[in-house]
Each structure stands twice: as C-alpha cells, then as structure tokens.
UniProtKB/TrEMBL annotation:
The lineage of its organism: Eukaryota, Metazoa, Chordata, Craniata, Vertebrata. It comes from the Eukaryota. GO terms for biological process: tRNA transcription by RNA polymerase III. It comes from Probosciger aterrimus (Palm cockatoo). The gene is Polr3e. This is RPC5 polymerase. Residues 146-169 are annotated as: Disordered. Transmembrane segments: none annotated.
Amino acid sequence: MANEEDDPIIQEIDVFLARSLLEKLYLFQYPIRPASMTYDDVTHISAKIKPKQQKVELEMAIDTLNPNYCRSKGEQIALNVDGTCTDETSTYSSKLMDKQTFCSSQAASNVSRYAAAVYKKGELHLTPLHGILQLRPSFTYLDKADAKHREREAANEGGDSSQDEAEDDVKQITVRFSRPETEQARQRRVQSYEFLQKRQAEEHWVHLHYYGLKDSRSEHERQYLFSQGHGLAENTELIKSPSEYLMMLMPPSVEEESDKPVAPSNVLSMAQLRTLPLADQIKILMKNVKVMPFANLMSLLGSGTDSTAVLRCIQQVAMLVQGNWVVKSDVLYPKDTSSPHSGVPSEVLCRGRDFVMWKFTRDRWVVRKEVAAVTKLCPEDVKDFLEHMSVARINKGWEFMLPYDEDFVKKHPDIVQRQHMLWMGIQAKLEKVYNLVKEHLTPKKQEAQSGHPFLVSGEQRVNMAKAKVKQNCGQLEKEFQKQKAEVKSNDTSAKMDVSNIRIKEEPVSDEEPMDTSAYEGMNNGIVNGLHTEDSMDSLNGHLPGGCVDRVAQELKAFVSSTFKKQFVLTLSELKRLFNLHLASLPPGHTLFSGISDKMLQDMVLDTGCKQILVPFPPQTAASPDELKVYALWEAGDTYDQHRQVLLEIFSKNYRVRRNVIQNQLSQECGEDLNKQEVDRVLKDCCVSYGGMWYLKGTVQS
C-alpha cells in the first residue's frame, strides 16, 4: 500500500486494437546508414520479397557526389566485380559502386508478443506485427569478384601448361547407381539442410514498389494503423480480467520444453545422459567417442556404477581392440542406411570397417592403400573408418590412437578370451568375402602379436650392442687362432687373407646411422650405422687397406650410376635406393661393412654432384633427409648447360611455371629451344604437379 501511494496514477489511456493490417505489417530494422545513403528518394530504392520465407532484399542507391564518398574505392570495387567490359549483366553499369543491397533475416521466430503502437489524441492504437526482419548489407558482389578472379587464374594456368601437363591432371571419379528410395530415406532427405536450401531457392521473388514517406499512398496506408471502430465489438479481446490480461501479455514459455531433445546426440549433457538406462548411456557414449578405454568409460558413468553390468552392456555395442573398446560397425551404420560419400549400403560399410578393426587387433599399424585394395571402397569411406580409431603418421601409415591397455587385459582374461573367439568368427567371414591371402592373415612383425609395441631407446641399443660385442669378440678370436694353427700345421702358405675373417662390431659413435630398418628381414642380416670418422679400420674388425678401397670403389660406382639415371635425388630417396641395392647383393659383399649417412653424402659430392639449396616453404612437413637435394652437375652430354640453368632457377624458387623456365633457358643458353628439348630437360630433373614444376622429390602434397 505504501508503494502505491508513492507511485500515483498520472493518466489513464484508452488502448485500441487495430486489425486492418493484421498479418501484413512487418518491422524492418536497418543498420546505421552512411551519410552518402538516403532512404527518402523513391528512385533510390527497389525491393523484392519471398512471402513464404519472409525474406526481403532492398537495393539502395549511394550518393556518389557526397563528400564522404570515396570515388577511387568505388571505381576499384566496380572494376573487380564487372571487369573492364560492361553489359546488361554488369552489377555496376556506371563503372562505380553506386548502390548497395540489404538482405533480411528473421530477428525472432515468435513475434506474437510484439505490436506497432500509434499514440494520437489520448488514444493508443496497437497493430500486431507479422514479422520482424533485420536488414544487413549483402556482399554477394565480392563472391562475383572472386569467381572472376578464379576464372582468370584458371585461364592463365591453362595457357601456361602444355598438352602433356593437361593429360597428367586426370582425376578419379566415382560412379554411383541410384537405388529405390525407402520411406525412411525419403524422410531424411526431405528434412536435410540441402533439400531445405533447394526449396527456398525455388521460391520466386516478388518485386515490390516503394512509396516514400510523403507520398499520398503512404499517408493512406498509415491510416490503417488506427482502429477503424471504437465499439466494443471491435475490441472484445481487450475486455479481459486483470489476470487474463496479464496472461495475454506474458504467456508461459513452453518453447524450451518442446524443443528439448529426448536424448542427447552430438553434444552430450551429462545430467540428461545419466537419466537414461545404463545400456543407452553406454551406446550414446561409444557412438560419439568411438574408441575408449574401460577406465575412462567407468569415470564417465559416475561413481557407484556396477562394473559387471557395464561389461555386460559394453559387449553389445563395442568390440575389444588392443585392450580398448571400439564401437561396433552396425551401431554407426544401422540397417537401411548408406554411405554419404558413395551411396554404398550399410552392410558393405560394416564389412569394410570390421576389416579395419580386425587389422588393428593384429598390428599397431594399418596401410590405407591395403584397406582400399581389399575392401574395394572409395577413399572417403576408408578414411572415415581409419579416422574413427587411428591417427595418420607421415610416411608410416595409420597408427591405432590409444596405447595397449594391459591392465584391462590382465584383470579380465575371460572377457579377452570371449572377444578373441568373436574375432575368430569375424575373421572367417572376412576370409570368405574378401578372399584374404596369407600375407593379410599374418602380422607384419612378431612384436605386433603381443598387442602392444616394444620400445627401445637409443642408449639401450648402444649398451646392448656393446654387450654383444664383448660376448662375441672372445669366441671369434679363438676361432681365428684355431684356423691359423690349422693352416700352419698343414704347411700351407704362411700368408693368410685375413679379410675373410671379420670380427663384427656394433656402432658406438654418437653420429646417427642410416635408417635401414625396413630391410632388417633381408638374408644378409646387416644393419648399417658405421662411420668413417671412426676410421675405416673399425668397420668390420681390422680391415686391410685394400678392403677399404674396394668399399669406396663399390659405393662410388653405385652413386655414379644412380645419378646418371636419376639426375636429381633427395638424401631420403638415395638411401632408399641404396638399401634396395644392398638387398640385391650376395651375402658377404664388401658394401655390407656398413655405410654411414656422412660417408654416403661425401661420396655424392666426390662424384661431381652438387647440393641444391631449395627454398622449401616455412610450413613444410618434410623430414631433414627430404630437405637435402643433390643433383648431377655434369653428365657429359649436350644438355649439361640447360640442366645447370634449371638447377640455378630452383635454388631460388621452390616451384616454377613452365613459361618462366623456358624463357630463362632461352636467355641463358642464347637460343630458342623447341618443346622437345625443354621436355627432355624437365623430364631429367623435375616433376609437374597442379600446373607447376618442382624438382624431383620436393613436392609436398
């Protein structure tokens, strides 16, 4: 009561409800307009609307004579959008940005609470709004400018590239065959974002006529904002009790309750999740996470959850891979669904994903090409499978994303045995479907059969090598003395070629050896990693000088012949070719004595090659060996000068266009080269990718 006395009623105003513009009145909210734009002139505004979508576009003129208008920027924008030629399709016919388009968006989905009010002679007249639209500047002209820019770039690249390059840019296409559409598939398609966008684009624009503020038609329409009759029959909705009137002004909000999802989908609410049954909780978690250790799953389910019940439920929606749980394929790809990439039915997708999971039960690593070759699925589907449970490693393949969970395997051997039996059944099905050969069924490495990798540090390897040397050195020395005594007793020659008896020592220097791990399984059993810095006498026991010379001669012959064939090689590619060369040699060859990276690089420089300092991009993911590029400087043929000019170009540029190379060759060599000669030089040293030329081995895809 005291508050009412402090706030007395000053005036009572009659309120009337106007119905003449019911479901026709819109409120437009404009941004702050620049001083060079006006809304008053009729000729300066054009409008169009899509009534069903309540979407409006207004095109307003810009006063180009206004002192606040920057004429140079207006001309530049018009030039970028329309180019130099103007026709009836041009956006700015005056070669000047003289107009701007505003596009609307709905400010509120429910406008039943809003009304336009007009106060006149002590009366307040309300007209309900049918929509509230916010107008924002539209920048579609920038998209048009970008499209023209891309067209010009494509035309320039097409002009620079030769016919041979055009033939190289062949892209793989996927042929899809449509199947009879089911009712569920049709409903999903109708509710998809793409379908809704297409429906909205199909609605035609309705062009409107704009009337200015002082126009007689505008004055006539404004009269409809007033109630046409002040009788009770016209305003029966306002004859309400105070409580009913308040209810009309502030109705209870039921929108949020109706919009709440029954169960979380992409974004999980832990509060809502824990209201669901345990089986549904586990299914939703596994469907979203896809790979999870059992300990993490228990922590998400909350304290007090029975682990036995969780183990019973998890086996219904997931499979055990390397001690971790991976969601089953039929949970991700339910029946009567298909691939969004290729349209392949869910049954085929489940088989392909099961093959990937099965491969990870046998090895930490999986090669994407091998999966695609066996499953015959498109690359996008195979990539989806691998991304569900693994991480890509450069030049290695795809590694299972979680470490081997040894704790779970030790605590639950019965679960592990049951899962192993299930995988045996899946393997039998996969063998029938994919006709798997023995190489697919056998793990690549013995360590992979244990389920987790065995890691050995560099220091441990050195210590193991030293211990092995100490263990074998005495025994080898005794055998050597025994053979020597036998030779003397038989009165044979006093001289003995000790090069046939070698005491193998493992590397103990700090220099990093050449990586030949990929060829450890070869018959020779030799592991490179010895260094010239330790002196050649320590290569294999105590080698005589003649043996050292033979190693150098053999290495020089290999390097020389390789560069005469390839001309340009990275250190990584050279080491790969050298390992292949070693694999082809018979056991006991002199090159098995051990070749270090430094020895190999020194020999490359000694054979007349030069290192090309290619300016790689700062964000390159290339390894240090891939950044070292060597090229044969003089091959002794007529193209030596041309190749040297080409290598000089790539010492300053990472990638170059063909026309730049051809012009530089013509200037430096003083003659006009024909296409065949340029092709010969480019073929020796370069590769083409995306319309540009790179030195061999330097392309970063």
